[in-house]
Amino acid sequence: DQQVKQNSPSLSVQEGRISILNCDYTNSMFDYFLWYKKYPAEGPTFLISISSIKDKNEDGRFTVFLNKSAKHLSLHIVPSQPGDSAVYFCAASEFSGGSNYKLTFGKGTLLTVNP
Amino acid sequence: DVKVTQSSRYLVKRTGEKVFLECVQDMDHENMFWYRQDPGLGLRLIYFSYDVKMKEKGDIPEGYSVSREKKERFSLILESASTNQTSMYLCASSHGYEQYFGPGTRLTVT
Question: Which structural domains are found in chain B, ordered by start?
Answer without folding.
Answer: 4-9+17-98 (2.60.40.10)
